[in-house]
Amino acid sequence: MTTRAHGYGPEDGSNSSSLTHNDSIESIDSPDSNGPVGNNPFDRLTGWRHSATWTYLVMLVASLGALLVSFILSGETLELARHPNAKLECDVNALVSCSTVAQSWQAEIVHVGSLSFPNAFFGIAAESIFTTLAVLGLARARTPRWFTIATWWGGLAAFLYAYWLFSQSMFVINALCPWCLCLMFATTIQFMALSHATVSVHRIPSSERFGALASGLASYYRLHFDLMVDVLWIVAVAALILIDKGAAIF
């Protein structure tokens, strides 16, 4: 059985070609095929905030910011490799010190034999991928459903990894790297935008298999609870830094 592919914008009768593999590849904003249109909770996610243009634009800006910071951190890593006693521009005091963080074992957790690879190098690779994915989203590229799910899990891994490094910096190394904090906040916004797009644009999870979860997520974004949670999250992290390290910073 063949089904007509869904696209963006008005339908063009002259391009009503059919796809025999539409079960595996679909337009990123096509209605969920698991139920009648109108009974799908994702149908209520309308407006510019829930569009592919907005969600992927936010993701693109955050990913580009994270990519830029990753390049800066990589440059500082190379500088320390050449001159171990060098003072970096972001070495403000004993607490705010990029070099202290960069010379910790947490800054190079991947080892192959006697070789170690700085986290910043992986940041360049990962953020290049997320930047490309954001561009694909803005271009309304058709992607398999499994690819979208894998992308979200990759975003979650990057998010959790960034906060693991933050916790190590705060409570183990006892030094803060300004560029690392910028990378963490950029990764946070990137993951928030990716999660929004996964639900509102790709309509994942399936409303047929995960009805209650799909309905809950649709309401979460439709009522703009995500904005409140996102802002509170960022404010809470900033407050934690100021409460725990504020006296030493200032």
TrEMBL record:
Membrane-spanning segments = 54-73, 120-139, 146-166, 172-194, 223-243
Q: Which terms does the record give in the GO molecular function aspect?
A: oxidoreductase activity; quinone binding
Q: How does it sit in the membrane?
A: Multi-pass membrane protein
Q: Where is the composition biased (Polar residues)?
A: 13-37
Q: Which GO terms describe its cellular component?
A: membrane
Recorded family membership = Belongs to the VKOR family.
> Which species is this record about?
Bifidobacterium aquikefiricola
Provide the protein name.
Vitamin K epoxide reductase family protein
What Gene3D superfamilies does the annotation carry? VKOR domain
**Major localisation:** membrane
Its localization reads:
Membrane
Entry keyword set: Disulfide bond, Membrane, Oxidoreductase, Quinone, Redox-active center, Transmembrane, Transmembrane helix
